[in-house]
Amino acid sequence: MRIRTVLNDLVPGALGVTDSHDHLFFRSAALPEDQELDDEAGAVAEVRAFADAGGQAIVQWTPHGLNRRADLLPGISTSTGVAIVAATGLHRREHYPDGYVDKIHDELAEIFVRELTTGIGDTQIRAGLIKIAGGFHILDAHAEHVMRAAAEAHHATNAPIAVHHELGSAADAVLDLLVDRLDVHPAAVVLGHLNRFPDHRAHLELARRGAWLAFDGPSRANNATDPRLMDCLAALIDAGYGDSLLLGGDTTTARARASTGEGPGMPYLLTHLRPRITQYFGAEVADNVFRNNPARAFATDWRA
Fold first, then answer.
1. Which end of the chain is more exposed for a tag (fewer CB within 10 A), N or C?
2. Residue 22 in marked binding region
3. In the chain, where do the E strands start and end?
4. N6-carboxylysine is carried by which residues (predicted)?
């Protein structure tokens, strides 16, 4: 079992304290130009701030076509000492310029496999996960097509699949498709943004199905979910699912950075949320959420 980072493949125990869902670089047709993450110095500053707070690894969920800047990631990892996992995959259609998705529609599985096994773009930097996205409460045709390509790439490589859920919805539909119909093992699926749909019963049903449950926060666009985060975690921990939880910052805009914007940014996970989790649930749970669970969630027996 290995975790594929932009520098090398790591044994799971070497990953360390992890931000399980974030972005160093991100460009989207849905974002104003001044909010895109395209600043190398800003990315370095944010990673250093995370490292200063005790962070050791970041899983970047920026997928194909959204300015991952893969060529810069090894240098950032080397200079900061923080391991970085890059992603392949495809986001929701509205994040891309008109016509872009249609051009690569029939090549998605091939693109994903190539970026997982050979390299992203002209680099030899390999992705360590497949990031895809569901629709709002349902899986539209685009989401289902991308998920089928992701499942094909997963079966070819064993890569984990991380899923953006629009406002936290349709996670059950994702498992219905990926696990029940496309034979992806639930332990290879990370369900993201569940804090944006703070339904404890729904979360427990997802946990029973064996997938990883990722809570991202705080997000500037979803402030109303912040006070509910600890209650969501408590319901799962009390039910015995503390070993299924992941936490990430999901910094997607320049404004959300701690180092160059208004924050709270990546360090907040460790300076504020980890102490609260330790206080409420104990040091063992906190160590699982930030260290042990990511080491298991993003490790796989790579086929290439």
1. C
2. no
3. 3-4, 9-10, 18-22, 57-60, 83-85, 87-89, 129-133, 161-164, 189-191, 212-216, 245-248
4. 131
